[in-house]
Amino acid sequence: MVASNLVFASLVLAVSALKLPSYTPACSRNDPKLNECVVRHGQQAIPQFINGDPKYRVPKLDPLTINQLSVRQGTRQVGISLQVRDCQIYGLRNAKFISARTDLKKRHIEWDFKIPSLQIQGFYNISGKVLILPISGFGKANITINDLSITYKYDWMLV
């Protein structure tokens, strides 16, 4: 989730405050195939954007460095708390922009991405329990997620 937020935030930076870079052509808001244009141009921008863009303050995205990644899920009977620090995330360069849904009147977008394989490396600390069985541990983490689907939803305001 953090990775998708950063990818999206990076793409939004390119279209929000500054003129679009040459590798990201604009789509016309009146284009009847606006969503297809967004996907096509977004996919074309990924190879350029992945290495970062200092003008837009976009960091290098593969590997993406994150100081801490936290996941807390569940209830008292079945719950987990996972922290991974000093993370390196690999695989974003292989992201495929699958589809877009744009509602300009409601100022809402949804973007779908597929990533064949995402690797997260760092140092983990985990605690939780499953019914009465406690779970705890720490050490080096190497997490691989295959066939990852991400849907990013974003609402914006005009100021």
UniProtKB/TrEMBL annotation:
Q: Does the keyword Signal apply?
A: yes
Q: Which UniProt keywords apply?
A: Signal
**Pfam families attached here?**
JHBP
Q: Does the keyword Signal apply?
A: yes
What top-level branch of life does the organism fall under? Eukaryota
Under the heading SMART domains, the entry gives: JHBP (SM00700)
Signal peptide range:
1-17
Q: Which GO terms describe its cellular component?
A: extracellular space
Matches recorded under InterPro entries: Haemolymph_juvenile_hormone-bd, To_sf
PANTHER family to which the protein is assigned, alphabetical: CIRCADIAN CLOCK-CONTROLLED PROTEIN DAYWAKE-RELATED, PROTEIN TAKEOUT-LIKE PROTEIN
What protein am I looking at? Answer: Uncharacterized protein
Q: Which organism is it from?
A: Graphocephala atropunctata
